[in-house]
Design goal:
The chain is globular, with a radius of gyration of 20 Å. It is mostly beta strands and 274 residues long. It has 1 helix and 16 strands. It has a single domain, classed as Porin. 5% of the residues lie in helices and 58% in strands. The strands form 2 sheets. A 12-stranded antiparallel barrel has the order 1-2-3-5-6-7-8-10-11-14-15-16.
Length: 274
C-alpha cells in the first residue's frame, strides 16, 4: 500500500484553496463567505424551477460580479421567469437585484480556510408586471445577511442567515418579512489535484420563516408560515469554470391558512471566472 505524504498533500491542498479563490466553493441554495479577488470578474447563468401544487415557475438568470478589493465584491442579477398557475401562463423579467458582499474575517492554516462575511442586496421594483403582476411585488426589497464558512481538504461547513425587508407597493400591499436560514455540509471524495477537475458533494438544510403579508395595515390570513427543505447537491470545478446544482425537497411545512405547499425546487448554476 502506498503511503500518503500528509504534510505534502496538505500543503498542496492549501495552495489549491488559495490559488482557486475565484472558484470558491459556496452552497447551491445558501450563501457562503467567499468573494472575488481584486479586479476579478465572474459571469454566471442560473436555471431554476419550482413547483407548488398546480403552480409552476421556471426561470433563467444572468449574473455579473466584480472584485472591488480582495475582500469586497459586488454585482447585479437579471432574472427572467415563466409562470403557470394551473390555468394561465405568463413570462417576463423579474426584479433586478444589485448585491454586495464583504468578507470581514479570514484565517488560514495548513489545508484549512475559515472566513465570515456580510451581504446586502436590493431587489429593485422593475419587474415586467404588465406581463404578470406576480413577477414582482411592486416594491423595492432589502436583504441583509451574514455567513460563515469552513473549507478543508476533505470537508466543508457553512452557516448563514438572511433577513428580507419587503417594501410596500402603491396598493398598500407589503409582503411578510422573511428569515432564510441555511446549514450546509460538504464532502470531497478524492484529494484535489492542481488544475484538474474537483468535485464536492453537498447536503443543505434550508429554512424559510415568513411573517404574514399586510394589505392596508391588516394581516392577510393565507400568507406566511414556515418551510424547511433538505437539499442534496454537487459543486464541480475545472480551471476557471464551475457548475453547481441541487434540488430542494420539503421535509417540514407549517403555512398559515390555505396555501400551496412546495413540491420541489431545482437550481443549476454555470460560473465562469475571469
Amino acid at each position: 500500500m502506498q503511503r500518503v505524504n500528509w504534510p505534502l498533500w496538505g500543503a498542496g491542498a492549501l495552495l489549491i484553496i488559495h490559488s482557486s479563490a475565484a472558484l470558491a466553493h459556496d452552497p447551491v441554495f445558501g450563501i457562503g463567505p467567499h468573494v472575488l479577488f481584486k479586479n476579478g470578474m465572474e459571469a454566471a447563468a442560473e436555471i431554476y424551477r419550482k413547483k407548488a401544487d398546480k403552480k409552476e415557475e421556471t426561470g433563467l438568470a444572468f449574473q455579473v460580479a466584480y472584485g472591488i478589493t480582495g475582500e469586497w465584491s459586488a454585482g447585479i442579477d437579471v432574472p427572467y421567469s415563466s409562470r403557470n398557475n394551473g390555468t394561465d401562463t405568463s413570462s417576463g423579467l423579474s426584479d433586478l437585484q444589485a448585491f454586495t458582499k464583504y468578507r470581514f474575517w479570514r484565517e488560514d492554516s495548513l489545508g484549512l480556510q475559515e472566513s465570515a462575511a456580510v451581504m446586502l442586496a436590493i431587489n429593485a421594483d422593475n419587474a415586467d408586471e404588465k406581463a404578470d403582476p406576480a413577477l414582482g411585488n411592486g416594491a423595492t426589497d432589502v436583504i441583509t445577511g451574514i455567513t460563515y464558512g469552513y473549507e478543508s481538504i476533505k470537508s466543508y461547513r457553512w452557516a448563514s442567515a438572511r433577513y428580507i425587508f419587503p417594501g410596500k407597493n402603491a396598493a398598500d400591499f407589503q409582503a411578510g418579512n422573511k428569515w432564510r436560514v441555511d446549514f450546509v455540509a460538504g464532502w470531497r471524495p478524492a484529494p484535489p489535484e492542481y488544475k484538474k477537475p474537483d468535485t464536492v458533494w453537498l447536503l443543505e438544510l434550508n429554512g424559510e420563516i415568513t411573517d404574514k403579508a399586510e394589505l392596508n395595515g391588516n394581516s392577510l390570513m393565507n400568507t406566511g408560515g414556515t418551510e424547511w427543505f433538505l437539499s442534496p447537491g454537487i459543486f464541480w470545478t475545472t480551471r476557471n469554470f464551475a457548475i453547481k446544482s441541487g434540488i430542494q425537497v420539503p421535509v417540514a411545512s407549517d403555512l398559515n391558512g390555505t396555501q400551496d405547499k412546495s413540491d420541489y425546487r431545482f437550481k443549476a448554476t454555470f460560473e465562469w471566472h475571469l
